[in-house]
Amino acid sequence: MSAQAQMRALLDQLMGTARDGDETRQRVKFTDDRVCKSHLLDCCPHDILAGTRMDLGECTKIHDLALRADYEIASKERDLFFELDAMDHLESFIAECDRRTELAKKRLAETQEEISAEVSAKEEYRNSMPASSFQQQKLRVCEVCSAYLGLHDNDRRLADHFGGKLHLGFIQIREKLDQLRKTVAEKQEKRNQDRLRRREEREREERLSRRSGSRTRDRRRSRSRDRRRRRSRSTSRERRKLSRSRSRDRHRRHRSRSRSHSRGHRRASRDRSAKYKFSRERASREESWESGRSERGPPDWRLESSNGKMASRRSEEKEAGEI
């Protein structure tokens, strides 16, 4: 990589996709499924093992240092939980490597058994056997990177292997996988606790709402009972008032009829007494007049006229009294 390319990659890694206003690069977001999540977390095996005997070539997903910078900026504000995707990717890769290691061990063991049997059958065959074939019975498989190691290799060759890019790359991948497992377990535990806390809070709120609802229903029932009682009391009071009013009206009507009857009776009695008194006075006057007339003899015409007027007046008074 040229110095210019290295500088561009460094700027992308520091500033992200928006460093030069390239809209084409901004169309793909780091959250896109086409973006390699292991690359965002700097643990993709295609990057780590590049240039070794086990170079995997280019990754099928997008690798961009600017997208990694965007992810690092966004992950400071919220938890994106991309560690789970990266952990699944590395677990699949390490499982495949371990399978190749076990297969190499098995093949090496079979080869060593065949060579040992031939050597034990022919002691003179050992001197004529090629050195490469004889050395195969003294090999072992590296548990980290599944490479073959000689049992009698000197320290320099062993140092070259253990310090090589392939072996160190596998160590980095395995350590990153352990770190991701720990991080995922912690985050899942935290999520479970948060989920449990939210569920407990929701259940507590539901219990409180049910209690408040039951209290509200009890208050409503109490208020309805109070209203029914007040209505019953008011109805009873109205009935009592109406009964008292009716009894007072009956009593008034009875008293009124009694008073009117007594007044009529007294008026009739007064009328009868007045009529009787008037008739007695008229009878006494007529009697006295008749007696005086007989004593005086025949009256003259003047007296008769006056007596006629008096008689007519008496008749009018009599008619008025009868009326």
Short description:
The chain has 323 residues and is an all-alpha fold.
Quickly list its features:
rod-shaped, 323 residues, 11 helices, 2 strands, mainly alpha, two-stranded antiparallel ribbon
Describe this structure in words.
Residues 299-307 have low confidence and may be disordered. The protein is built from 11 helices and 2 strands. The chain is mostly helical and 323 residues long. The chain has a two-stranded antiparallel ribbon with strand order 1-2. The chain starts with a helix and ends with a helix. Helix 10 (165-296) runs antiparallel to helix 11 (301-322).
Strand order across the largest sheet = 1-2
> What's the overall geometry?
rod-shaped
By DSSP (H or I, 4+ residues per run), the number of helices equals: 11
**What composes the largest sheet?**
2 strands, antiparallel
Q: What are the secondary-structure elements, in order, as H or E? A: HHHHHHHHEEHHH
SS class: mainly alpha
Q: If you average the pLDDT, what whole number results?
A: 76
Helix content: over 70%
The amount of beta strand, in percent, is under 5%
The number of distinct β-strands equals 2
Euclidean distance between termini CA atoms: 152 Å
